[in-house]
Amino acid sequence: MSTWANLGLQDSASPLMEQLIFFHDHALLILVMITVLVGYLMIMLFFNSYINRFLLHGQLIEMIWTILPAIILLFIAMPSLRLLYLLDEINEPSITLKSIGHQWYWSYEYSDFNNIEFDSYMIPTNELANDGFRLLDVDNRIILPMNSQIRILVTAADVIHSWTIPALGVKVDGTPGRLNQTNFFINRPGLFYGQCSEICGANHSFMPIVIESVPVNYFIKWISNSVNS
Ligand code: CUA
């Protein structure tokens, strides 16, 4: 999760987020190069003495500074499209989780396992444990197995919400009357925090998401206990 003074992206917990970070760094590098070049040119303009009386046009430089930016943009567009299609790819998921946005909490359904379902509310500050995270911890976490392909179905019951988990590179809108799909692969155990990121009303800030990523055998133990109880 993000902690104090962390201005960049969170460490990735999935291959897709890793690729998103690579793309971010790549785009930022190009951005810095352009900014430095344009900044240098603008500063140098101040020290320019107009000494060439016959300079009226320059076909060559016009060609260069028209075509060069177009080529630079291609270097951003191509990896961007690659990522876009990569994010949309569904790789034979072994588990499907359905998350439904409500005003103002999430509810979840494990449709593969006898339709286990539960609500997930934020823990209010006055009920928070000493090691709890304010505005971020929930009463019922989503348990998911690590190293497995997971499909998420997102919808909403009232207004538009957004199921967003930065460390996994997931951000899907939950829209009433629609069923959106995404998938991810968690490559390490741990707790991954997220928040609703579609302005959904007065308590928009208070419907966080917590995923508990555990080894597969732990998950099977948890799910079989839940089915039997
Ligand atoms: Cu739900 Cu914002």
TrEMBL record:
Family classification: Belongs to the cytochrome c oxidase subunit 2 family.
The keyword Transferase is annotated on this UniProt entry: no
UniProt GO BP: ATP synthesis coupled electron transport
Transmembrane segments: 27-51, 63-87
Necessary cofactors: Cu cation
A Pfam cross-reference name: COX2
The Cytochrome oxidase subunit II copper A binding domain, residue ranges: 92-225
GO cellular component: mitochondrial inner membrane
Cofactor stoichiometry and binding remark: Binds a copper A center.
Subunit structure: Component of the cytochrome c oxidase (complex IV, CIV), a multisubunit enzyme composed of a catalytic core of 3 subunits and several supernumerary subunits. The complex exists as a monomer or a dimer and forms supercomplexes (SCs) in the inner mitochondrial membrane with ubiquinol-cytochrome c oxidoreductase (cytochrome b-c1 complex, complex III, CIII).
Organism: Drosophila tsukubaensis
All residue ranges annotated as the Cytochrome oxidase subunit II transmembrane region profile domain in the record: 1-91
Keyword field: Copper, Electron transport, Magnesium, Membrane, Metal-binding, Mitochondrion, Mitochondrion inner membrane, Respiratory chain, Translocase, Transmembrane, Transmembrane helix, Transport
Name under which the protein is recorded: Cytochrome c oxidase subunit 2
Catalytic activity as recorded in UniProt: 4 Fe(II)-[cytochrome c] + O2 + 8 H(+)(in) = 4 Fe(III)-[cytochrome c] + 2 H2O + 4 H(+)(out)
Role noted for this protein: Component of the cytochrome c oxidase, the last enzyme in the mitochondrial electron transport chain which drives oxidative phosphorylation. The respiratory chain contains 3 multisubunit complexes succinate dehydrogenase (complex II, CII), ubiquinol-cytochrome c oxidoreductase (cytochrome b-c1 complex, complex III, CIII) and cytochrome c oxidase (complex IV, CIV), that cooperate to transfer electrons derived from NADH and succinate to molecular oxygen, creating an electrochemical gradient over the inner membrane that drives transmembrane transport and the ATP synthase.
Record-level Gene Ontology MF annotations: copper ion binding; cytochrome-c oxidase activity; oxidoreductase activity
Record's keyword annotation contains Aminoacyl-tRNA synthetase: no
Coiled coil segments of this chain: none
